[in-house]
Amino acid sequence: MVLITRKTLGTLDQVVDDKSTGLKMYVVKTDDKHYTVLYQGSTDFNKEGGKQDWLENDAPMAGAILSKTKMATPQLKKAASVLQEVMDKHKGASFDVYGHSLGSMCAQYAITNVKDTNRIRGAYMYEGPNIYSTLTSRQRVNTAKLAGRAHNYVDCKDSVALGYSDHNGTVGNIHMVKSPVDG
């Protein structure tokens, strides 16, 4: 059953459309002391911004994940710096963070870089690569502080969700999606 109401879930507080990195991020004020941050996933390769998402972010991060290289693309770094700016602007507020695909990598990276992990009420990442192998020891300490509040939903049958099979750590608790074998 789906129930549709006319309840306002929040007010759009900020839109980030950073042309230099490709970051697309939305900040929604849900009440005076709470905000929801949404990171957009990869754009279709043939649409505006698609090549930037895939060639300057997805491909380099896939290489870093597979080689366990400690690095982040400019988009992930921008995602982290803007989240911290938003948190600094709204002192005392708590935050929920969401991201899908490339947005999942942005969310993972951003939450591992915040100054105060206690202000992250929850993080929900969907069907994105596991960036844990690319994180520094300081970022991994922050990851541990988020235990129980960060959730990563992945389907191992989807090639986008790479880096989860090596058991070397994850950003958040892993929730495996059991998709049908065929269609």
UniProtKB/TrEMBL annotation:
Superkingdom to which the source organism belongs: Bacteria
Pfam families given in the database record: Mbeg1-like
Protein name: DUF2974 domain-containing protein
Organism encoding this protein: Alloscardovia theropitheci
